[in-house]
Amino acid sequence: MNYYLFLMQLIATLLAIVLLWRAILRYRRVRLWKRVERMPFPPEWERSVQKIPHYRLLPDRMRDSLRPRMLYFSKTKEFLGIETEVTDEMRAVVSFFASLMASGMDEGCFDDLQTILIYPHEVVRHEVRERGGVFSDEEAVLDGESVSGTLLIAWSEARHEAYHAGKNNVIVHELAHLLDFEDGEADGAPPMGPSLRKRWNRVLQRRFDELEERVREGREWGEYRLLGEYAATDEAEFFAVCSERFFQRPHALKSHFPDLYRELRLWYGLDTEALFSALG
Which of 21, 73, 156, 273 is deepest in the core (most CB within 10 A)? Predict the structure, then answer.
């Protein structure tokens, strides 16, 4: 009897400690948020984000709301330069896209992201791969990666895509992977309510299966040319690529895949076609 009483007291104590720690973290976040709301936006940051077409297209009220979000994001993440020095431009550009992607969501977005590694150029990594029982050492060239609370960015590629607004954006792509993994699984279905998830799974799975079939059978691409072959890798990459197009080519995505656009608009809480239709 005493054993069970002790066990219950221990569980209650541990629960109280967890709740207290969460309350402390919440208090720190609120205090930091109030502080950054009063901070002036750095002129060097403004010069950098003015080069981003997305930023220039935003209405004034949205730019005003994003600036403190960017500062908050930057102050809650560790930026590390690998063979390069982290600059205000790097912080501003990465923080902008993270804040834009999270602007229609809950404030807890990207809480699991702790470290952002900035490489000057693409990263070449040796990987051992197996095909039919035969192992080979192959080189993999990375311009971005996201895993275990860490975001890796090759700055030369990320900078070019941020300022020139093509259909690809490695920052958006890798941040989408982090959002996908917030429920513990990289499956192309980020955290969402059951009503939204049912339709989400049906729409995205159908489109993924159609793309995968075209790639496998060498069929005509048609409208799927907008997404590209890499999106057929798996469901996680499909979601990340669709997120890229949602922010980079919203008009084209809505025109060719209105069902995909609708699901992404509902989940991100943003009508990117209305905001960025000029991007294509």
Answer: 73
Tens digit of each residue's pLDDT, the chain (280 residues): 576 676 666 676 666 665 554 555 454 565 756 677 778 999 999 999 999 999 999 999 999 999 999 999 999 999 999 999 999 999 999 999 999 999 998 766 798 899 999 999 987 765 555 545 555 456 667 778 988 789 999 999 999 999 998 999 999 999 999 999 988 888 899 998 888 888 999 999 999 999 999 998 888 888 999 999 999 999 999 999 999 999 999 999 999 999 999 999 999 999 999 999 899 8
For residue 164, tell me if it sits in a domain: yes
- Output the pTM of the full model: 0.86
The answer on 198 and 98 residing in a single domain is: no
The HSE-up count of residue 154 (CA atoms within 13 Å, CB side) is 16
Domain that holds residue 28: 1-38
Q: How far apart are CA 223 and CA 139, in angstroms?
A: 32
Both tokens of 257, joined, read 């895949």
Q: Clarify whether residues 225 and 272 are in a common domain.
A: yes
274 with 207, same domain: the answer is yes
Residue 243 maps to a domain: yes
Dihedral-angle region of residue 171 (phi above 0 means left; psi in -120 to 50 means alpha; beta otherwise): alpha
Statement to judge: residues 63 and 94 lie in one domain: yes
Residue 178 lies in a domain: no
Q: How many domains does the chain have?
A: 3
Q: Which of 122, 116, 118 shows the shortest CA–CA distance to 83?
A: 118
